[in-house]
Amino acid sequence: MVSKIKKADPEAAQVLVSALDTQEVTRGVLPPVDVDSRMNLLREERSVVLEFEPLWPTDIRKQLELVLAERRNALKLIGAGLQPIKTAMFKGPPGVGKTMAARWLARELNLPLLTLDLASVMSSLLGKTGSNLKATIDYGSSFPCVLLLDEFDAVAKRRDDDRDVGELKRLVTVLLQAFDQWPSSSLLVAATNHPELLDPAVWRRFDVQLDFAAPAIDEISALLRHEGLSDSFVSRIAPLLAGASYADIRRKLLSARKVGLLQDLPFEQVLLEQNASKPQSLRAEEVRRLRQAGMSQRKIADSLGISHPTVNRILKSLEKGNYGYQEPSA
């Protein structure tokens, strides 16, 4: 409305902006539940509290700060006829911080976080899933909040996938309509582990897309230093944690602390012993990831603390067909 009347009546537009800035927001819609099971369709956190302060890679941090800047200055943008970031897509493998980023944004914006519970929304009754999904989105758009649609690929699959029934394909239409009508007062975040499964029409509905990945060696080192480990020990343990997600690394740290406490052993000793010997499949996956990132075999060997012939042997095994690996072109 502000955008429409700004040119014709700038003073009225400014009055509306001021009213939006001071008006107390009340909720006119009750939290949605499944009609049959009466289960809540959303998990709601009124005030988000994080167990630890996340450490973001530089590119992710800059993009998250951009989202914050636009959301915090939404009224200023609206007053100028512009829209702040309303929708964001977080994509990447499990455990790399997608859900944490949504919770962090909600905390920084001092907004409640609503998380879609797919187990409740996905009804076995024909037509009910679309109704459940629409109810959750209507509720999230009724007051300022951060709405997280986790495992987004489960409800936004490609409509040309013949393996899915018509009901799942209709969900995409429901989503597209909801995104087009999403208000600037709230932030909608979709998270997916499988972006390749999403319908192409979904992508252009997102104002910003963030690619999350497993931490690199220097990011692992920064996390370990943040946990109080010395530089000399970090240089030994960080390569052994290569390929692990942030969530995996934190679980390993917690496990080592518990074992060290219960067995009266130094934490660093336990952590090193638990990660010194790795399964062959995990080590092969780490070698593949570093090679596809453009790292030479010699650097891979130095980074992972293994011999150059071992790296060469793993790459040859992968190239023969294991994991579908192909040597990158020069």
Automatic annotation (TrEMBL):
Pfam (any one): AAA
Keywords: ATP-binding, DNA-binding, Nucleotide-binding
Domain of life of the organism encoding this protein: Bacteria
GO molecular function, a single term: ATP hydrolysis activity
Stretches that traverse the bilayer: none
Residue ranges annotated for the AAA+ ATPase domain, each copy included: 84-216
UniProt xrefs under CDD domains: RecA-like_protease (cd19481)
Matches recorded under Gene3D superfamilies: Homeodomain-like, P-loop containing nucleotide triphosphate hydrolases
Keyword DNA-binding in record: yes
Protein family: Belongs to the AAA ATPase family.
Protein name: Winged helix-turn-helix DNA-binding
